[in-house]
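To whoever picks this up:

The parser on our side crashed when reading a file containing two proteins. I've narrowed it down to the boundary between the first structure block and the second sequence. Both blocks are reproduced below exactly, byte for byte. First block:
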Amino acid sequence: MGADVMERTSHKEELNEGFKALVTNLFGQAKSKQAIEVFEEIVNDRATVTAFNFGNLKQEIIKEVRQELATKDYVHAESAKTRQEMAEMKQELKAEMAEMKAELKADVAEVRQEMAEMKQELKAEMAEMKAELKADVAEVRQEMVEMKTDIIRWVVASQFTLVGIAVAIIKLL
């Protein structure tokens, strides 16, 4: 056939394991097996009747290596972009959390202030009620004193009246 066609022979050589590992890294697990077989056929002069165009094979290998590199670059770029986005989101979350924490602290301070004001109001109301109660107790005591005095006057007046009535009854008798 031509210079690009290899004929099958019975001579068999094995490829170096390092070379196989290189091909596996370049093509990935799925395509590397096929590429290794092709290389083994070339090395062992066991190519089938099918013509192998070494130029095309070289171009295909170069193309796949470029695609692999482009894919790795793309993955690295996307990975870096994702990391950057995650870092930005982390910063946004931290800022949001700090803002919420500040709002919560302000709310707590406001509630504490309201509680303190209510406490002062309650103390003032209690003092006012205590003063009113003392005034009411003093007024009741004063009324009791006045009533006592009135009762004593009434009793004394009643006794004078009884004594007067008794004296009048005795004079009449």
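<<boundary where parser fails>>
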Amino acid sequence: MQLKRILYSKPVLVFIDQAIYSGTNFILMLFLAQKLDLKSFGLFSTLMLFVYLTMSITTALIIQPFQVSYYKMVQKKEYLVFLTLGILLIISLLSFLIKLLFIVLPAFNHYESYSNGIVFFIFCLLVQDFFRKIFLGLTKVINALLIDSAFLILLVLFFYFLKDGIQLSNTLLVIGFANLISAIPGIYFIIRNYELPKNWKTFLENHIEQGKWLVYIAFLQWGSSNFFILISGIYLGIEALGVLRLVQSVFGIIGVILISIENYVLPKMVAIHNESVAKAKKYLIDISIVGIFVFSILMCFVIAFSNEIIILAGGLKYQKYGYVVKIMAVLYFFIIINYPIRIAIKVLVLNKIFFYGYVISFILSLASFHFFLKYFGLYGAVAGLSINQLVMTFYWQNQLKKKQFQLWI
């Protein structure tokens, strides 16, 4: 009984859901890298970059204000319907803009045959993502787990029947249908709790007030992380973008580990900081030194077996890109050094410093991308990302120093 109680506890269910969600996306990227040709995977990777941007925007406008406001609302059912109508309006406008781009811009003519599939793919993905995050926000973890589990099972079934006939066009439809069908629990939940949102103006004002700055931050975060990747597709070809995204997916495992460590360390840091600033600083430095040492050994292993890793991830056609794994390992070393500083900023609630750091990083990307990509290719793309990390690290570290919370020299 005790084991059953633990397994069905919300923290464990949230962990299982996150494992399924992250694992599915990770495996899907590796699977498509192996099944699609370099150009098709590059196109899919480009599409996913824009999807992540739209997800950041919808999260800023809809989900984050919802997380803060829901339990303060008296008309909760009205509010949930308002959120659903809001996300459908945003996605519909986005779909219209995508179709318009394919009609207006000559550069998109070559990919016009994918336009309907792309619109369907994005529409279904954003709808499913909305319901998943709503259920997590309502602490209905079982419902979110049902959505993510159904999505995984449907993908396995659909791709099994396609087998060797997997192409970009049917991949977009398969993932779209898997998202739409797995979103049925969310659709049913809203229908069952439907109430006409008579107070929609109040809800809208609240979301505009909260969301306007969050959108700017979301765009800057996306830009500082993905601008070099996106522009590399223009300068170096769509295949190069696909390679960078594949390697990023491989390193995504480290990203998940870092987020898990942050989720453990951050609450503990806050508690220690409330007792003593000196103890909090010492705790963070001690745990950071151990973490950096462990991750440094891991990065050395990745560099030593870079060719094997890229072949395992994407197949023999990516063999010549083993060097990208090596240089990406250097970037992640800088990210790891930066992580304790991020945690310190969150503990001290210095949100403006976060914002200004991303502004500086994005401006630096705009100023330097041409030089790095034109003269250094893929090396330049990763070098640009690394310099961005270093600049943010030095800026945030300097701001912490002003607050008498300096971590590194």
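After patching the parser it read the second block fine. The two ends are 51 Å apart (CA to CA). The chain has a mean pLDDT of 86.
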